[in-house]
Amino acid sequence: MSSSIRVLSQDDINKLLAVGDSKAALEMVDLMATTFAAYTGAHGDAEKQKRAQAPQRIGVETDSHKVLFMPSRLNTTTSIKVVSVPLGDSKGGLPGTILVLDEATGGLSTVMNGAVLTAVRTAAGSAVATKYYAKEDAKTLLVLGAGAQGRSHIDMMVAVRPTIEKVTIWNRGQERRDKLVREIQAAYPKLTVYGVGNEGDGLASAARDADIVCTCTNATEPILHGEWLKSDVHLNCVGSYRLDMHEIDAQCVKQTEKILVDSVEACTHESGELVASSTPENWIEMGQVINENQDTKADQTKRTLFKSVGISVQDSAIAGLMAKRGAESNLGSVVPY
Fold first, then answer.
1. Could you say which of 91, 95, 160, 197 would form a disulfide bridge with 131 (CB–CB 3.0 to 4.6 Å)?
2. Cβ contact 247:226 at 8 Å
3. Could you tell me which residues come within 8 angstroms of residue 328 by beta carbon, excluding any fewer than 6 positions away?
4. Which helix (H) or strand (E) holds 98?
């Protein structure tokens, strides 16, 4: 029996995502909200678990990368993502590919470049938490990291909090930091955009002023310190994914009044900062907040933290949408297989 697969390149994915469009960004935020809700709602329900499956990721090490394999299933989309995390310099980004299976035959249906998708779905997840917990009139945003995650987080934060007026970008390397500053200033001319490094007290000053902070780095030693932060700041921490990785210090965690996570189980195995300075009994899954329709208005005056290590159903959610849009718009290359 002959079959074919659709291959979606990075350019194809960018077209399908409409990166930088606030309406498209909000659609992605809504998609991640329903994904979190489905993931948490499946806990303890055998039938719902069939529709939201997220096994723990597995990995192998090469001489230059930690290669991660993340299978998942959400509703009628079954996929696996492969990401190569550099062991050293990550300036080239994270090479990623997502494979989507045909629901009827079980064969391969779509192969897509996953580099941008990972950043977008992670940032959209952070935006879900921000929508619930950041001040409605938030004006200042601090982003640590100038890679794809940093860029996507700025896009998503501005979409859910259009009140933002100032963005500060921290990155160790000046070249990458300055490049993102220029990109954001061009994309959002009304914003005031700054770049800071490790010189002087630039980062500490930006942190003291920030209403929202997003940490998107691969740091193993804390960069952000709790003593710098406002009492009503909202944090999104997405960079660390191992127990030995720490983007924020213990004070950031211990002074937080409410800790939200994408997955309690996954964070128990992969969130170095939370495991070192808090207990899983004090973590709340965003899916629970959504499913219970919790009123979080009062929490917007508190210091809150959302930790995401990434759950693979997010990949099936966004990959399923891209596969559907790609077929409908006839984008990509269809090849015999």
1. 160
2. no
3. none
4. strand 96-101
Q: What are phi and psi of 38, to 5 degrees?
A: -65, -40
| Contact (CB, 8 A) for 256 and 303 | yes
Residue 93 has pLDDT above 80, yes or no: no
Neighbours of 224 (CB within 10 A): 26
Cα angle at 12 between 86 and 28, to 5 degrees? Answer: 80
7 in Cβ contact with 337 (< 8 Å) = no
- Token pair for 173: 């390397």
Chain centroid to Cα 88, Å, comes to 21
- Chain centroid to CA 107: how far? 29
Nearest to 267 by CA among 52, 13, 54: 54
Rounded Cα gap, residues 213 and 198, in angstroms: 17
Residue 306, both tokens: 């959302």
Phi, psi of 306 (to 5 degrees): -110, 120
Tens digit of each residue's pLDDT (9 = 90 or more) over 147-204: 999 999 999 999 999 999 999 999 999 999 999 999 999 999 999 999 998 887 899 9
Q: For the chain, what is the mean pLDDT? A: 94
Across the chain, how many H-helices and E-strands are there?
Answer: 12, 16
Q: What is the pLDDT of residue 85?
A: 83
Q: Which helix (H) or strand (E) holds 175?
A: helix 174-187
What are the pLDDT digits (tens) for 231-277?
A: 999 999 999 888 999 999 999 999 999 999 999 999 999 999 999 99
In 1-76, DSSP assigns E strands to 4-8, 52-53, 58-61, 65-74
Strand-pair partners of 97: 82, 113
Contacts of 1 (CB under 8 A, 6+ apart): none
- Locus of tokens 């029996």: 1
pLDDT band of residue 90 (cuts 50, 70, 90) is low
CB-count exposure of residue 291 (10 Å: 0-12, 13-18, 19+): middle
pTM of the model: 0.92
Q: What is the pLDDT of residues 307-319, one digit of tens each?
A: 999 999 999 999 9
